[in-house]
User: Fold this.
Amino acid sequence: MAFGRPPIPNSADRRAWLRSYHYYRSKLMEEPSGAEAIALCQPLIDAAGGWRAPPPWVSLIADSDSGAISAEESDDPDPKPSQAEKPEKPVPPGAKNEAPAELAGTPAGIHHGMPFSKEGRVFADPWRLPEKPKRILKYFATEALAGDEADLLMPEPEFWRKWTAKVGANGYGIGSLRAFDVLRGLRMAGILSQLEQAADRAIIWQIGPSAAIARAMKMKLPGATYLVSCEPWEMVSPVAFLRKAMPEAKLMVAGDAADLAKAWDSFDFIFVPSAMMSELAPPRLDLALDAMSLQLSPPEIAEAHARHVYALGCLFVFGLTLSGESPQWPIVATNPAFERFFWMHQMPLRPIVDWQIASMIDEGFVGRGFFGRPEETKYWKLNVHFMMGWRKLRV
Amino acid sequence: MEAERSLHDGLAEVESVNEVPLRAVIGLPAYNHAHRLPEALESLLLQTHPGLRIIVSDDGSTDETPAIVADYARTDPRIVYSTTPKRLGYIGNARHCFKLARQLFPEAEFFAWASDHDVWHPDWLERLVEAFDANPTAVAACPRSFRMEADGTIAKSVEVDLNTTGIEPTLKRFVRTFRGISAGNMIYGLFRADALERSGIMRWQLLPDRLLLCELSLYGGMAEVKEHLWFRRYRRIASKERQRAASFVDHVPRYIRWPWWLAHGVVLWREYGMGREPNGPLTKAQGRRMAVYYVLLAIELDTKRWWLRRERRLVRPVKRKIKKLWWRLIERLASLPGRPHRVFRPIYGRIGSGRSRD
Assistant:
């Protein structure tokens, strides 16, 4: 899911981040489907010319024989502070929005430098989901299930139960709640009903890797083809997750455009690398869903996506966007790109899991007061918004 | 002359695209909203229901409205562009749209008014026509809507659901409609054209929408569509003064200075209590009773509104103060360990209600 807290470039957090990543990778490799997923991604990685811009302090090594990926900490540009040194103070919200110098040379965007799915927010504490966040999740899931739109809340798969809170027989995690938000937004915008009633097989393009949204959408719209475009290495996590969670679904990781020609009507999930975006030519496109991916990409990438979505005749776009200021992440407003081709409107929908709460769950933090705590100030004041738009007739 | 020509050109092209059976005509009275018009017009042209024609009636705009409409009309034969011979005002232009629709497309079953600054969901017409097909006795159908700010941000959801299909007798339906309608929103629903014609289209009154919807309820029920399919852009707070200025351009009749409910009551008494229509929905006695009901209900409504205004001025500041203290208490409670449930419920309310906390 697209809500992982971005890696913080100070040494302690970086080490924690790497530890999480190693843990995740080892877990992934234990699963046969995980290894298969990586093997599947390998030709794509090669086709895309190798890895795209990992964070400058991480070297990713892909072994073409075994399909294994390893990450190593490269020469530390910011050496670990000694015990006596005080850790860096976080930049308060509202401060000047500048990317740190060490991120300046990453034209592919920080987003493309995260070698785990942003779904991977749970890996900030990879060993377990602590009890208190579980209670928060349980509260939200119970509330959602008691509401009018309970049919939109999809339980997490059984193997994911470690990171879920149990309500009744099912477990609900951050991913299922985020997907619930998206489905609520789509229903409110009148898009979901249109997709449900589509006479032909609907094709939905999700921009950005989010296995939870993809899975929930597929469960809600079983007759649709779900296209996911992201960077090759970003596919590993969602592909592994979906293969494990929905073994009956037909999943394809496209290597070239020829693979795609016959796939539109027969596959449930089609993963394509972003580099292949210009070759995508589905027979129809019912919805483009930006899973907070384009906002963390350079503006020209957002523009290219918006242009291509428009060229494919897509009637609706739906996007999750962030607003606010981040001291480290250059948040790109996707609206200018999309507004050229679509009439965009912000939805009056308050997400259940917003950035701050998700961060708190991530940290296992709760119960020391909700407002104005010193602990809270280290999170950036970012809010999640839902945007909807429909195509312009004249551009 | 120019307007005449564009109208005839449009009609010639419309005839050529007549393969799809026409079901609805949308009349768009336009006046000096050129900056919002393209989005409004495109949202109507994007309707997924194919049997649609759009009549844009320009009431002498002084901005780029004529050029914009002419431009769209050139490329889309579903648009018919017309200009009024002189400035008619909002009611006059809306009536002009309807009459033109009946004249040019008498076979169209449904009619709707559109504004030159709101936005319609592509499924709007399809869903409303489906609602009519499901309720053959309905004379009007309305979806839920969003309130949109001037900059396009959707501010809140407006969920005024009113379903009066199947309510009998007529007077009961009339009372239910009066109490349940949100006239400013529902006037932009879809109507059966013949029922609209019999209800006097849009009368030369203040709050003509309320009167029209109540009159329509005499001929059949109102179907609801529980989907957000219309985006209403709010610019300023509605006022009777603004409405008066927009609707009565040359001459303001004396009865417009009366209380609106009195003027409406007189109209209803005259139209339904004095037997103008022999095959009307009510007998004369029922018509008179209905006119009296209308006045009483309107007085009740005005009293409620007066009380609300008063409450807003006097009571709300005190309530706000109490709420502030309550929030401080909540903050305190939240700082106690192990009670997140007690904190989140008042903060977030019930999830899934579809409403923003703000």
User: Anything to note?
Assistant: The two ends of chain A are 32 Å apart (CA to CA). The CA atoms of residues 153 and 264 of chain A lie 27 Å apart. Confidence is low (pLDDT under 50) at residues 1-11, 20-34, 43-129, 362-380 of chain A. The interface with chain B takes residues 132, 135-136, 139-140, 143-144, 146-150, 184, 188-190, 193-194, 315, 343-350, 352, 366-373, 390-394 of chain A (CB under 8 Å).
